[in-house]
Design a protein that fits this description.
Layout: E1 3-5, E2 11-12, H1 14-20, E3 29-31, H2 39-44, H3 50-61, H4 67-78, E4 89-91, E5 96-100, H5 110-114, H6 117-125, E6 131-136, H7 140-149, E7 155-162, H8 168-175, E8 182-187, H9 191-202, H10 205-213, E9 217-220, H11 226-245, E10 255-260, H12 265-275, E11 280-287, H13 292-299, E12 301-302, H14 324-331, H15 336-347, E13 352-353, H16 356-365, E14 366-370, H17 373-387, H18 393-407, E15 415-419, H19 427-431, H20 441-452, H21 458-463, E16 473-474, H22 479-488
Parallel strand pairs: 5-15, 6-7, 6-9, 7-8, 8-16, 10-11, 10-15, 11-14
Antiparallel strand pairs: 1-2, 1-3, 4-5, 12-13
Bound molecules: pyridoxal-5'-phosphate.
Amino acid sequence: MELVSTRGGASSRPLDAVLCGLAPDGGLFVPRRIPQFSGETIEQMAGQSFTEISATVIHAYFDQIPQADCLTMAETAYCSFSAQDVLPLETVNDKANLLYLDRGPTLAFKDVALQMLPLLMARAQAGEQRTLILVATSGDTGKAALMGFSDKPDTAIVVFYPENGVSPAQKRQMQTSVGKNVAVYAVQGDFDDCQRGVKNLMNDADFRAAVAEAGYGISSANSINIGRLVPQIAYYFYSYAQLCRRGRIKFGEPVNFVVPTGNFGNILAGWYAKHMGLPVGKLVGASNSNNVLYEFVKTGVYRAGLSLHQTISPSMDILVSSNLERLLYHLSGNDAAQVSAWMEQQKRGEDFTVSEQVKAGLDEEFCWGWTSDEEAKQKIGQVFAQNNCLIDPHSAVGYAVYENLCREGALSGQTVVLCTASPFKFAASVLAPLGVTPQGDGCDGMLLSEASGRPAPEAIEMLWRMPVLHTGVVTPDTMKNAVLEKLADPQFGC
Ligand SMILES: *Cc1c(COP(=O)(O)O)cnc(C)c1O
């Protein structure tokens, strides 16, 4: 397996790419050739666990790691999940299925990748290198990465989240993080400021030199890192296998996937699954009112200069979706020069318009919808009352878009809606549709448990009893100093 940069200036072995996160030319690493699974391999998955399927997918990309080791890594990564089958698939009606991706230690789908990434990272470091991991988070990546890398040898991690852009439980999760190699900062800005800030640091030669002086290389735990993306491909195969096993489909029949989308990482994993041979019908992106991707898929114009709306699905409050660059590269027929030009336009704050070839690819493979907070709330109430399913506001965006497309007759066959987070992370927003008035951050989890008849996850129960350890606030301009000061602190590090 060889990876190349979307900007054309670099290539890498997969494990080396995990160590650097972003390609040296500022692009993202993608497979030069997407690995293929035979029909037989996919059909066999109906008899396999998520862990086994994960090992097969990891090995297809990280072919430097023997298959048996991939299996051990997957077993290690997913034993921390609370569900016995790791990712439960629930049937809603004769066409719709929910895949719960929120049973990991931090209660969001980010755990699926971020329980695996540290194992890939350790393999890449081979005990010979120290790595500083920089993370920008819209709420869920931060805690999942902090949990994954806390007190891991040879690794330090610094997380930046938007000060007023995450839910109370998300903020508390990050502020209470333990480990002597972890640091967390609130940024006075939105997620796009955090993400831009981190990308700028990764491309800043002076900063890199100072970090190297302190003994570290730099990497990322965001989905710009290929090691974040690959583990996510596995659950598309797993859902398909489960539908076969339960007789909901015959092998070969296409299945649609609905993906609540922000940074385009999750849905891109679905696109890779399809191009590895999985029979996928439509890939449906679902946006909240930050619907820049909806407009893009419809028109081929990616808008710049929009202003961000704060919604009840904060992990999707994103306007610059970094993984789209990977899709543009593939759909343009690997035209790195073209992709570089579009990304330069975007960086200058201009709209960019994709070629007809790319637009045709978008039309053929994607369907897109978006929904308001009002509609998402209404959907939370509806699926609870009618189907006894409890879903979070992000998943509700997905479900609302799904139902709208069904009404328009745009989808046929079985559909899997990905549930990306636990409703307990967004208790206040979920209580109201259930007819209960929220009472404040510390109580809402308990109230939701009473109202829904489901126990609050232990990670939520503990949250409000743990001491707050991280209260630092920075601006986009002082992110650099904050990291350098941390590195100079003798108390900090691995
Ligand atoms: C991160 C996140 C998303 C968006 O996923 P992308 O890979 O960024 O598109 C959706 N829902 C939840 C709960 C998330 O944490």
